[in-house]
Structure formats: structure tokens, C-alpha cells
């Protein structure tokens, strides 16, 4: 046997020994694996039982916490469906707590839940602070609380509130639950430790068993696993980057409200770091009260999807804000994702938009909004009111549909150039109403930019200026007509500004001052024009009067007034200066040369008339003396003849003497009236104004007129108030009344009537004040024809009765009227219904103490 053969044989033997050794090792490993699996099954069973017990204990503890939460909801919701739902959930949790307690203590073979281990049972039924006693007391308090909030009971017992339940939940009961949980966890830990040891042994044996056969496969699997892990980590990093880039806060939360995860936006929104958030609960930010809060709380408990539109959240610094919460359960897990979106700005923006929309809707100015191509998207009601086009008729169309077509294209080109450049544009358009009528608007158009700075819309705010345009046109037309009217005035007319510069004037103004025409131009000062006139010697002034004339003209110009100015040419000009409220000067120049000439002629005629009147007065005075002397002699001798008892007159002679006396008295009265009339016209008749008792005056007049009325068979009626005084001349007032009464007797009808009525006036005469007394003399005569009344008060006019049997001269009424006017009254005449005439006048009433002589 060669050496090589021996070596090969030795190698084969070695391989056989190694194979037998490996076979033995595999057998031992297989036996160990089988034994380990058997032991592991026992440990797994024990661990599962303890895990189920721990789950039951956790559920039991969680149910007690939820019971407290539902009690808080009942407190926060005093009434309504939400409170009723909370009571139902409270009762359900109460029953669940009882069931979970029995399940925890006694177990349930059907659910593979064994009774609690003996080492833990001591906490349930210990001598002191046993959990069984504490729980019973807790449940009793909870039942009393539920009963206290039963709406069917009118007067529920006030024995429990959620604060007492909370005290029990976080006090002894919670401590006992904690001890039970720790005991179960201790048993579970020891069982898991044994399970871990068995699994470690099994894993070690299995790995060793498979190490030799699966090194290559394990290598590939490890490589693939590493790749999967890298991809998973990369995907996780990408997912975290996406989550952190989201503006909404994202929270991962357990059913009890504890936070597991929070992204960066949640940290910024809630005002805490991510580590602080993952150590807090959802209840630390909101009480989950109100309809939205309860909806989120219930959905979290049930792991259902829910949304709270505007729930109130509180940051640790105390600031509050409104947010939208969206709860989405994670499928297959007892966790949920909550997104938090701060809607404070959104609410403010909605409020601003609401206000802006309200302002636009109720704006009196038409508003049009178009897209960037000019298509109308919105018009407000004011647009419809002005144009007549409804929003439905114009939306979707171009504003060209309301154009009248009268606008020049250059205006539109300039407008679009400014708007496309991002600038605002202002201008006026002549548009067309729906009824075809045109109207003018003043538009202010501005572009609206989007978040990228691009033009998205255009908004136009318009103002209806049709009336304004028409007013301006009317004003321009009025200005032109005014200018034409001013130019057509025969007088010179000019307007100076408040700074005394000429604003405008007509040609007649320039023509008044021929030598000053070059200086009379718009913008020229008034003092300069006057200076030019003085330098050109346009005024008829004596040497040395120039400066006084200049100062007087400036003073008249600045103060206002009138002045007659004589020009060197011999003409006269009336200069009228008026100051307007705004400070402007209105100047009127009137050529009064003809008036001055007529005034000169009238002055000459007046002098001649005064001379003739003086001659007349002298003649009347002389004639009065010349006539009175023989007339008094005639009357005296006639009276002597009538009174002669020695040689009495015959009846015929007596009648003749009586005719002489009547004619003489009539002639004497005529002379007195003529003299009075002459004195009045000359302004030389004296008046002694004093208080006059109207009742006494009426009786005196009645005594004097009554005989004549009786002889004419007339009925005379006198009415006068007692204790009333008027301010008048006693003699002249009696003369007035006697003239009127005597006329009423003379011109009355047979068996007629006459009245003297004195009464207070209902109202003072026009332009007068104070109390007045009205004197009226009426008769039942034939009256005065309307066409002859304008001759009634003319001297010597008897209205066609010159040939009648009634004596008269036609002077009485003229004299009476002038006497009334001298005493401040006015004599009027009216026609009575059924025939007759009424003469009346009014005099001021007085207190009977004032006297004055005129």
C-alpha cells in the first residue's frame, strides 16, 4: 500500500469519524431540540395564560379610567343627546368592570383564562385594603353617581359626583390595581424568563443544527435581510421626511389618549417638543367636551373614524386656538392617527372674506370681477341697479356687451397695457344699459395676483357719474349762456377775483373807459386799471384830486357801494361795486349821462313847481283872507236878520235867509277844505298826536250826524268798545269820521242805514306790529262802480254826480285819505253784498299816556 493510498484511507477514516461524530452531534441536537420544544410548549402555555390575565387586568384598569372619563362628560353636558349617550356608556362601563373583575379572579376556561395565581390572589382578599372591598365600594359609588344623574328621577340624591369617583380611581383603588398589575407582571416576567431560556436553548441547538447545512443559505438570507432592512430604513426616512413636511400636525395615539408619535408640525402647532408630546396625552390639550370633543373621544374609544371641525385646543403657555381634528384608526392595531390643523388663520381669513363679501354685496358702487381673460365672473347688486343687466345675463360674457361703442379704441389699448403690466387704471366709460340708454361710469380697475405673482383676475369698482357729467355739461352750457348774457348787457359788467385781479368782463365794460381798454384784460389788477385811467386823464378831476379819487375808488371797490363818476368826455357813469360771500368783486358800470341830463331838467322843473306852489299857497292864503272877511260879514248879517225880533222876517224872507246861511256855511267849509288840502300838499299841516278815547269819539260823531240822519229818515248804528284808546290827532280823527259819516248820509238811499263800527283788528297791517283798532263806516247806498274807484280819492272828483241834488266839492275823500295816511293808517273802500259801500282804516292802539306833535 502506497503512502498516497494510506493517506487517502486515513482521510476517509477521518471523514467517517467526523461523519459519525457529526451524526452523534446531530442526534443529540435533535433530541435536545425535541425536548426543548416540549418544555417550550409548557412555558408558552404558561406565558400565554399570564399574558391573557395581564390583558384582562389592563382592560379592567382601563375600564375604570373610562368610567371616570364618562363621568366627566356627563358633568360637562348638562342636557341633550350627548349627555344621554354618556350615561349609557357609563352604565356599560360599569357592567364591563364587574365582568372583567370576575374574569380576572375566577378565570374562564372557555377563553383559556385561568384564575389568578395564588401569589396574586392575596391582593384581592387580603385583610387590609383588599381590592375586592375597594372595588365594591368604587362600584357602589359609581352606581349612586349613575342614579344621581338619572333624568327620570325628579330629585336625585346628591351623594356622588365625578370628583369622588376620580378620587377612588386614582387613590386606593388605583394603588391596589397597581399592586395586582405588578404581581401579574412579576409572574409573567418569571414565566417569560423561563420561556426565554428554553427558547434560547432551542434556538442555540437549532442554529447549531442548521449551521453546518445552512451557512450558505443563511449568508444569502442575511444579505437579503440587510438589503430589506436598508430599504425599510430608507423608506422610513422618506416617510418621516414626508410626515415632517406636512403642515398638519400628525399624532399617533392609543385608545386611552396617550401619544406615541408626533411630527414636527404637531410640535410647532401644540407648542411642545416631540419628546414632550410623546410623554403626554390627548386630554392634556383638550377636555374632549362639547359635541366635537365627545365625538372624538367616543371614536377614539371605538377606534372609528371621526372629524371635529373646530375644537378648542390649549397650549402649555395658556394660549388657545381652534383646530380641526381628524381621527383615523390604524387597521389591525389598537392605535389611531390624529391630524391636527390650526384653523385660526383660516377662521380669520373667512371672517375677513365674509366682511369683504358683505361690503361688496351692499356697496352702492357697481363692482365687476373678471378672470384674467376679461370674462365676467361676478357683479354685485349695485351693478344691476345701475345698468339693468342681471348677474345671470352678464356672467360668462365680456364687458364689451355693456359698451356703448362710443369709446375710442386708444382708451382700451392704454387700459389693457396698464393692467397687463400689473398697474391699476382709472378712467371713464360710456356704457349701455339693458334698455338701450347710455350712462357714464368712472371706473377704477386693478389686477388681482395669485400666490405666484401672476394675474388671476381683474376687479373694477365703478361710480355712476351720468348725473355728474350732465351737471358739468349743464354747467358749461350755463356758463356759455351766462357769458353770452353778460356780453349782451348794455351796462358794463366785470368780475374780479378776491385778489383783485380781473376774471372776466364784457365789451361794454371796456367801452366805458375808452382810453383804458389796453389795461383792461384778464389778470390785470383793479388798482392798475385805475392808475392807467388817471394817467390818461379819463376822469373829470380838478388838479390835485387824483390821489383822493384813487383812494376813494379803492375803498369803494373793497367795501362795496355806488358812486357817480364824471368822465372827461362829459359822460357820467354809475359805478356799482358788490362783494360776494366768496370775496369776489362784481362791478357794474352804467352810462347815466341821459339820466343826469333828465335829472337836471327835472331839478329845473321842480324849482319852477316849487315856485308855482309857493305862489299858489300865497294866493290861497290871500284868497282865504279876502273870501273869509266878506263871507263872515254875509253870514253875520244873515244871522242878525234871522234873529231880529223887532221886525221879524216873513216866512218867505226866513227861507231866503236860511238859504243864504246854508250857502255861506258850504262855501266856508269848501274854503277850509281847500286850505287843508293845500297845507297837506305843502307838508305844513300840524298834527297833535295823543291818545284818543274811541268810545267818546264815537258818541261825539253820532251827536253831530244824528240830526242829519234823522232828517233823511236813516237808521244810524254806532258800535265802539269802552276803555280803548288810539294814537291819533283828536281834531283830524273827528274830521275824518264826520266826512265819512256825512257822505254815508248824503249818498244813502231813502229809509237806508249807516253804521260806525270801531273794533280791535284781528291782525296788524302788513309790515306793522302790536294791537291796532279798525274804524269802519258803512252805508246802504248805491255803492261805487268798480271802473270809477280809481278816481275816488282824486281832488274835485265827484264820480259823475256833479249835476245831482247832493251838495259836494269832491275834496272830502281826498283830504280824508291824506289825513289817515299822515296818522300812519290806510283808507280802503269795499263794496258790500246787496249794495252799499264800506270805508275803513286802522290806527295803532295805545295806553292813553303818549303825546307827540308833528
Q: TL;DR of this structure?
A:
The protein is of the alpha+beta class and 854 residues long. The protein is built from 22 helices and 23 strands. Strand 13 (561-566) and strand 14 (572-579) form a beta hairpin.
Rg result: 65 Å
Query: What's the N-to-C terminus distance?
Result: 193 Å
Report the sheet with the most strands, covering strand number, pairing sense and barrel closure.
8 strands, mixed
Strand content: 15-25%
Mean pLDDT: 78
**How many β-strands, per DSSP?**
23
What structural class should be given to the helix and strand makeup?
alpha+beta
How much helix is in the residues? 40-55%
Low-confidence stretches: 1-5
Number of helical regions = 22
Shape: elongated
Tags for this model:
single chain; 854 residues; alpha+beta; 8-stranded mixed beta sheet; 5-stranded antiparallel beta sheet; 22 helices; disordered N terminus
Topology record:
Elements: H1 3-76, H2 81-106, H3 118-121, H4 131-148, H5 162-170, H6 172-245, E1 249-253, E2 259-262, H7 264-270, H8 274-278, H9 290-302, E3 306-314, E4 320-329, E5 336-342, H10 344-361, E6 367-371, E7 376-379, H11 381-387, H12 391-394, H13 409-420, E8 425-432, E9 438-449, E10 455-464, H14 466-488, E11 492-496, E12 502-505, H15 507-512, H16 526-535, H17 546-559, E13 561-566, E14 572-579, E15 585-591, H18 593-643, H19 651-682, E16 688-693, H20 694-711, E17 715-719, E18 725-729, H21 730-746, E19 753-760, E20 772-779, H22 812-822, E21 828-831, E22 837-846, E23 852-853
Parallel strand pairs: 17-19
Antiparallel strand pairs: 1-2, 1-5, 3-4, 4-5, 6-7, 6-10, 8-9, 9-10, 11-12, 11-15, 13-14, 14-15, 16-18, 16-23, 18-22, 19-20, 20-22, 21-22
Amino acid at each position: 500500500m502506497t503512502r498516497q493510498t494510506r493517506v487517502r484511507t486515513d482521510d476517509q477514516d477521518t471523514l467517517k469519524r467526523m461523519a459519525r461524530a457529526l451524526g452523534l452531534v446531530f442526534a443529540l441536537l435533535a433530541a435536545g431540540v425535541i425536548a426543548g420544544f416540549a418544555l417550550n410548549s409548557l412555558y408558552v402555555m404558561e406565558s400565554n395564560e399570564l399574558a391573557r390575565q395581564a390583558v384582562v387586568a389592563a382592560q379592567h384598569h382601563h375600564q375604570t379610567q373610562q368610567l371616570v372619563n364618562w363621568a366627566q362628560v356627563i358633568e360637562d353636558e348638562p342636557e341633550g343627546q350627548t349627555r344621554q349617550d354618556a350615561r349609557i356608556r357609563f352604565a356599560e362601563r360599569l357592567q364591563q368592570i364587574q365582568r372583567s373583575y370576575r374574569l380576572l379572579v375566577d378565570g374562564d376556561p372557555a377563553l383559556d383564562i385561568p384564575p389568578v395565581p395564588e401569589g396574586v390572589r392575596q391582593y384581592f382578599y387580603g385583610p387590609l385594603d383588599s381590592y375586592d372591598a375597594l372595588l365594591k365600594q368604587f362600584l357602589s359609588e359609581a352606581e349612586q353617581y349613575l342614579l344621581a344623574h338619572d333624568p327620570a328621577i325628579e330629585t336625585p340624591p346628591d351623594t356622588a359626583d365625578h370628583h369622588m369617583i376620580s378620587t377612588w380611581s386614582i387613590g386606593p383603588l388605583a394603588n391596589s390595581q397597581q399592586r395586582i398589575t405588578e404581581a401579574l407582571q412579576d409572574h409573567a416576567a418569571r414565566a417569560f424568563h423561563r420561556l426565554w431560556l428554553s427558547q434560547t436553548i432551542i434556538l442555540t441547538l437549532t442554529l447549531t443544527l442548521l449551521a453546518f447545512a445552512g451557512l450558505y443559505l443563511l449568508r444569502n438570507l442575511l444579505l437579503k435581510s440587510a438589503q430589506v432592512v436598508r430599504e425599510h430604513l430608507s423608506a422610513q426616512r422618506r416617510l418621516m421626511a414626508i410626515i415632517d413636511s406636512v403642515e398638519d400636525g400628525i399624532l399617533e395615539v392609543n385608545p386611552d389618549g396617550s401619544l406615541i408619535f408626533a411630527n414636527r408640525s404637531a410640535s410647532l402647532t401644540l407648542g411642545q417638543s416631540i419628546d414632550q408630546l410623546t410623554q403626554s396625552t390627548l386630554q392634556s390639550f383638550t377636555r374632549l367636551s362639547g359635541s366635537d370633543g365627545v365625538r372624538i373621544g367616543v371614536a377614539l374609544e371605538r377606534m372609528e373614524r371621526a372629524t371635529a371641525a373646530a375644537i378648542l385646543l390649549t397650549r402649555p403657555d395658556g394660549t388657545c386656538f381652534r383646530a380641526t381634528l381628524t381621527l383615523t384608526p390604524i387597521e389591525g392595531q389598537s392605535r389611531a392617527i390624529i391630524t391636527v390643523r390650526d384653523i385660526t388663520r383660516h377662521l380669520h381669513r373667512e371672517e375677513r372674506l365674509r366682511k369683504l363679501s358683505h361690503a361688496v354685496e351692499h356697496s352702492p358702487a357697481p363692482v365687476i370681477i373678471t378672470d384674467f381673460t376679461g370674462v365676467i365672473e361676478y357683479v354685485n347688486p349695485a351693478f344691476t341697479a345701475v345698468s339693468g343687466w342681471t348677474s345671470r345675463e352678464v356672467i360668462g360674457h365680456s364687458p364689451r356687451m355693456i359698451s356703448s361703442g362710443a369709446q375710442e379704441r386708444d382708451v382700451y389699448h392704454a387700459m389693457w397695457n396698464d393692467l397687463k403690466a400689473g398697474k391699476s387704471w382709472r378712467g371713464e366709460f360710456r356704457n349701455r344699459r339693458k334698455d338701450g340708454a347710455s350712462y357714464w361710469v368712472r371706473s377704477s380697475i386693478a389686477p388681482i395676483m395669485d400666490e405666484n405673482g401672476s394675474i388671476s383676475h381683474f376687479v373694477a369698482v365703478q361710480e355712476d357719474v351720468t348725473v355728474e357729467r350732465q351737471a358739468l355739461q349743464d354747467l358749461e352750457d350755463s356758463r356759455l349762456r351766462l357769458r353770452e348774457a353778460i356780453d349782451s348787457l348794455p351796462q358794463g359788467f366785470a368780475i374780479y377775483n378776491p385778489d383783485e385781479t380781473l376774471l372776466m368782463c364784457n365789451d361794454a365794460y371796456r367801452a366805458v373807459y375808452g382810453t383804458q381798454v389796453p389795461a383792461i384784460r384778464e389778470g390785470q389788477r383793479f388798482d392798475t386799471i385805475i392808475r392807467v385811467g388817471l394817467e390818461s386823464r379819463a376822469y373829470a378831476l380838478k388838479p390835485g384830486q387824483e390821489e383822493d379819487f384813487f383812494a376813494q375808488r379803492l375803498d369803494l371797490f373793497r367795501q362795496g357801494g355806488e358812486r357817480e363818476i364824471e368822465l372827461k368826455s362829459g359822460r357820467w357813469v354809475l359805478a356799482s361795486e358788490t362783494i360776494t360771500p366768496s370775496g369776489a368783486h362784481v362791478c357794474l358800470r352804467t352810462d347815466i349821462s341821459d339820466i343826469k341830463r333828465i335829472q337836471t331838467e327835472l331839478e329845473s322843473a321842480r324849482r319852477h313847481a316849487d315856485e308855482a306852489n309857493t305862489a299858489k299857497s300865497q294866493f290861497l292864503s290871500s284868497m282865504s283872507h279876502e273870501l273869509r272877511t266878506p263871507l263872515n260879514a254875509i253870514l253875520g248879517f244873515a244871522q242878525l236878520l234871522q234873529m231880529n225880533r223887532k221886525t221879524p222876517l216873513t216866512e218867505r224872507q226866513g227861507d231866503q235867509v236860511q238859504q243864504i246861511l246854508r250857502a255861506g256855511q258850504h262855501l266856508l267849509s269848501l274854503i277850509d277844505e281847500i286850505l287843508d288840502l293845500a297845507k297837506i300838499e305843502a307838508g305844513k299841516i300840524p298834527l297833535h298826536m295823543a291818545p284818543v278815547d274811541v268810545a267818546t269819539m264815537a258818541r261825539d260823531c253820532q251827536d253831530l250826524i244824528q240830526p242829519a240822519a234823522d232828517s233823511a229818515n236813516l237808521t244810524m248804528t254806532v258800535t265802539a268798545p269802552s276803555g280803548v284808546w288810539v294814537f291819533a290827532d283828536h281834531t283830524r280823527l273827528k274830521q275824518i269820521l264826520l266826512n265819512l259819516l256825512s257822505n254815508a248820509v248824503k249818498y244813502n238811499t231813502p229809509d237806508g242805514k249807516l253804521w260806525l263800527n270801531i273794533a280791535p283788528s284781528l291782525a296788524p297791517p302788513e309790515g306793522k306790529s302790536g294791537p291796532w283798532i279798525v274804524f269802519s263806516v258803512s252805508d246802504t247806498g248805491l255803492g261805487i262802480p268798480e271802473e270809477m274807484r280809481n278816481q275816488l280819492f282824486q281832488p274835485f272828483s265827484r264820480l259823475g254826480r256833479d249835476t245831482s241834488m247832493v251838495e259836494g266839492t269832491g275834496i272830502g275823500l281826498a283830504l280824508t285819505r291824506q289825513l289817515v295816511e299822515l296818522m300812519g293808517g290806510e283808507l280802503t273802500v269795499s263794496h258790500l253784498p246787496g249794495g252799499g259801500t264800506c270805508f275803513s282804516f286802522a290806527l295803532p292802539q295805545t295806553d292813553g299816556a303818549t303825546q307827540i306833535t308833528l
